[in-house]
Amino acid sequence: MSVSIRCKPEKLRVPLRVPRPDTRTMSLTDAKIRNTKPGSKPIKLADGGGLYLEVRPTGAKLWRFRYRVAGKENVFAIGNYPSIALAEVRALHGKARALVKQGIHPSHNRQAERLSNHTANANTFEGVAKEWISKKSPGWTPYYLRQVERFLESDVFPYVGKLPIRSVTAAHLLEIIRRIEGRGAETVALLVRQWSSAIFRYAVATLRADGDPAAALKGAIHRPKVEHHKPLSRSQILDFTKALAKYGGYRTTVIALRLMLLTFVRTVELRKAVWSEFDLDNAEWRIPAERMKMREPHIVPLSKQAVSLLRELKTYTGGRDALFPNYRRPNDCMTATTLNRALERMGFNGKDSIGFSAHGFRATASTILNEMGYRSDVIERQLAHAERDKVRASYNHAEYMDERKAMMEEWADFLNNPTRNARKGTALRLNMRTGQYDRQHR
Prior knowledge:
The chain is of the alpha+beta class. Helix content is 45%, strand content 11%. The strands form 3 sheets. Strands 1-2-3-4 form a 4-stranded antiparallel β-sheet, covered by helices on one side.
């Protein structure tokens, strides 16, 4: 007899897998944020990845990011809602998580960025440029300083002055210099590029810039052809002296033009001259270094004709400091345009003229004195041109004085009748036996 035993099959025990909650299903929505009302205690609305919105009893809704760095839990305050919208805070959260992966606290990184931005805003192009000017200006003439300040303030600062200097690019500067070039001021455009380059080099040296974008623009502006000041010919000198004798303007202007011809100094050196610089008894004019282009003192030997004119001028302006005070502004000197306006009225400058300006007196003297046989070193020294060799310059200063005095006297005599002496000409030669300078006819 067989007995069958029926057994219930044993159920297999399979461990139950509980799915992890999908953070996406827990993500916040703008509707949920708006509909969440404050309670008696802070409410935290999670968005995933450590990002949550804290709703405080006061009604404030604050974005927070909970994270760990070096095993320690921290909370990063991102900002508040609705100033930072949901989409924006998620982008900021992503950047913060990337920093945490690098072991960087997001709050520390934000502080560093704020400090960097503050420093950049403090170091604007205009601020660095003015600092550069203050460092360099002690070695500049007042005219050059005014030129730098005027063109930077009018052509550069309005466009990039308020930008951090690190933010100023070659494209910014190219637009500026092309704008200047477009109005026909090519020389100004070239100067602005050069000054901008110097400002950037200064910024690099003081660790406020990484490079000089202006250097890349070298050659972007075509340098205009330099037109040298035209000299007067011998016959034109005679025409000039006749026209000057008939000129109906101020006597002081006539004297100024006559002194320009006799001394051939730079226009600004004569316009800003003061009586304390002159020793009429010893026929000498000493121009201080700060008023000279080369920043070195200069001596002008005065001919008899020049001394006579200066004594006459003293009856007009001797009671003031300046030889040629401005009639409208007594504390200022004659303007730069006064002499050229007089030359226009005399027919030597302006439309349909020979184009002679007050600067041309120097070219006139240089050309004719070379023709008369004077040594070029003597002429150049009297023109106060730069001497590259400083030792030689000091030596020549003393060596040439006798020659310069004689040359200035002969130049003044020549101007009395320039055409008669056209073929004669004289030169000085040192007599080694007597130690004196002898005149030699050519």
